[in-house]
Task: structure prediction
Amino acid sequence: MIKVTNEQIEKQYRIMHAVREQNKKLDTPPKCFIRTFGCQQNEADSEQLRGMAAEMGYLRCDTPEEADLILVNTCAVREHAELRALSVTGQFKKLKEKNPALMIGVCGCMVTQEHRMAQVKKSYPYVDFLIGTGMLYKFPEILADRLSGGRRSFTVDAAEGSVAEGLPIIRESKATTFVSVMYGCNNFCSYCVVPYTRGRERSRERADIIAEVKNVIRNGAKEITLLGQNVNSYSSEGRDFADLVSEICALDGDFILRFMTSHPKDASKKLIDVMAENKKCAKQFHLPLQSGSRRVLEVMNRKYTPESYLSLVSYMREKMPDIAISSDIIVGFPGETEEEFEETLSMLRYVEFDMIFSFIYSPRPLTPAAAMECQIPPEVKSERFDRLLALQNEISLKKNLRLVGGTERVLIEGVSKNSESMLMGRADSNKLVHIPRTTDTEALIGSFADVKITKAETFALFGEIVK
Ligand code: SAH
Ligand code: SF4
Ligand code: F3S
Result:
């Protein structure tokens, strides 16, 4: 494991405090704007970047126009994510022209790829620094150097990656929190860029994770989501992920524990048993299937079959009959035939996922699948995508309707994004639940409440607080 030394971390703190002293001399405190793309792991990284920025005296701002420091934390999983990150970065050119003192940094998965790093370096000359995913802990050093007149910097060497402990974190929410347990990925699914952008698998030490979890519980966490690209690869002091889950569930506090993501080739019966035994474990499992075709799974290098996937699902349902299962599906993988796509549809019908995240296959440079012949034409991909969604929507609605009349324990998170007159929260199953917003219900934000479900839609449930 490549743990960053204490000396390195202490050095970053010294630099952070020196920058803070400099910033105190300004008339008004400087402000930092962060735009995050991608998965929860990236969101967790941004919380650390925000923590470091705050330690350096930067206040948070929610528009780039007000900012003295802008960070774009990018994703590379599909081309669309990269194009958005590039376009957002492009919009900051004008701001830099108006205010040459503005610092702009681009970090995350996109710039951890050689070709994108070179592209940003060349075509976005107003970007001051790039930081790769494994180097985020060096953000203070890199920023301080540039602030004091240093050259633009491109610190993106991340093939191995690192584990940095003890950096400051400012979390977006006190109640719903992310805790990374491992970083990187060794699986090299043939379509996926993550092993190239996040480096090799490495686990945090057990004691560091437990200390962080205790800390978030003390600060009011009600939902803790353990993060890793493949949490089942977690290992520390001879203990595996199921042991870690079990240990966290034994901690005092009224919280619910989730985790993502599990790879079907490694999800163990032991983990399922631990979930079934522990009340604090959400009865929810995200288990990306990707495809229902044995051949396609093989070419994807997923190392499981539709049959072994189904046997995991049956074991879960045997142990936890009400478990909500969600999945990721890719349509239009190179060479996917109509019959193979229909095998995916059959799996959807058979398993009846509560929810899926579906993606149109996007060729990623460096990955073997991008070089495969027989790429599927865009119109075929989108036609399959539409059929997949239509089927899943039917299934999701059917499953949600079954919940009407029942009661769910819901963590009330805040005001609904769609309507000011509603609050939103998540049930144990991770399903979105809306309740009417009143002064009484607002007082429940950040805590659990029993909600009687009165109405169901494809993507959400609606209900009322049980008195
Ligand atoms: N580590 C996690 C997921 C990481 S990426 C896992 O293995 O489950 C999240 C999802 O993005 C993947 O599950 C996959 O469905 C999708 N994805 C990854 N690469 C993709 C690509 N090149 N095109 C389309 N979707 C992709
Ligand atoms: Fe990508 Fe596969 Fe690793 Fe998930 S397990 S991050 S899909 S390579
Ligand atoms: Fe994107 Fe990197 Fe996450 S590629 S999905 S931000 S691991």
Summary: The two ends are 51 Å apart (CA to CA). The CA atoms of residues 286 and 326 lie 5 Å apart. The chain has a mean pLDDT of 96. The longest strand covers residues 407-415.
